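Q: Structure tokens for this one, please.
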Amino acid sequence: MSYEQLAYVYDQLMADAPYDSWIEFLCKEMDRFQAPGRRVLDLACGTGELSIRLLKQGFEVTGVDMSEDMLAVAAEKAGEEGLSFPLFQQDMSQLDGLPSYDIVTIFCDSLNYLESSEAVKQTFSGIYRHLNPNGLLLFDVHSTYQMDHVFLDQTFTWNEDKIAYIWNSFQGEEPYSIEHDLTFFVLDENSGQYNRIEEFHKQRTYSVHDIEHWLVTAGFDVLSITADFTGESPEATSQRIFFTCRKK
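A: Here is the predicted structure, written as tokens:
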């Protein structure tokens, strides 16, 4: 997984992503569980779309992402809005040298890009160290149902004037894992030709029980587990699972 070329068309591909719903979830949970402040660490911030929206709502935001290109796009977008915020290139499982925050977010199933349970556990431990007392961790992951019944052996396509893709999903080597083989065709407006971009991504998820156990082991109180932006408990066919946790 590189995101080196994909970073520059990512926002076009994510134009319909539910950013407003993620922010609504964050605001509701921080009020419901009394977050100690509005200082947010946005892990896997990508092109900064969520971070910038939070900045506009008065949050103090820091963004972290593994991709240098994603961070470059985020900085450029913020500058175009007359905004700026700290951006760091780090692996979320190896957080280091950052201050403490009131809220940490990992949205858009970004935790599923960690390829081992140990990396997930290290991420939870690192977040715990970087949270203020009573600080909140909010994140979502793909459900095991999503991996085994929605993604598995499926082909997804999308075609618009300036960009198209073919997305094939296959069973990964580990339980509840998927390998995504993506091919994008992006219009170069200067030449009138389409550039081909190929990306290979892996995602892996875990049972709700396992994730909850790792959170508790890391020192968190698990305050809420819901599904699909509904605020209701997960069901057998739920596709996106949300966790709200508090540092003890």
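A few notes: The domain at 6-142+206-247 is CATH 3.40.50.150 (Rossmann fold). DSSP finds seven helices and eleven strands in the chain.
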